[in-house]
Design brief:
Layout (H helix, E strand, L loop, with lengths): L9 H16 L6 H8 L3 H4 L6 H24 L5 H16 L5 H12 L3 H27 L8 H21 L1 H4 L1 H16 L2 H10 L7
Helix pairs in contact: 1-2, 4-5, 4-7, 5-7, 5-10, 6-7, 7-8, 8-10
Amino acid sequence: MSRPDVSDERRPQIIDAAVRVFIRTGFRKATMPDVAREAGLSVGGMYWYFKGKDEIIAAILERAFGEDFSALVELLEAGAPAAERLRVFVDGYVASFAERQWMHAISIDFYGEAAHDEKVQAVILRYLARYRQALAALIGQGIQAGEFRPVDPVAATNALLGMEEGLSLLLAVDPQGTRWRESFLLGCELVIAGLRAPAESLRDHTDGTNPRIA
């Protein structure tokens, strides 16, 4: 039996089906046969495209955050000050956040499952490692340029990532009280302000410039 064509259309259809199943039943209870039925495939046909739920998680994360990550990588090559580039990334992340509201409940499931499933944990760790590496590199550029304080770039990155993930958790349980956008923007602004070296902060106050990109 020859392997069917893994087309650009079929994989997104399976991912869509998996998202519906995960939202409906929860990640833990969902099975590969459940996803196969939702996608209109046989169980055997399903395994031509994804070998397990961990591979589907990776595909869902890539769909949800791949564009943000690509934008972050591009910012590493830009010539603007690091604070400006961090703000550009934050603004872009906020702008795309509303488009992936479907991801919120699934993310909580993924993180809960990662606590006791090594395969799920490994997928999420790979995803986090990419973001941590890129953000830490950007913060490191600011440190090398004398724009930021000589802090641990990874610790600063974890502060940003932890704020985003923590606010997403609050949003899942208290959507009315969290005010995600306002809280995330304020938190990022405070972190960036705290990163700035004292001399750079003094210059901004004395000459009236505002490094924020419109």
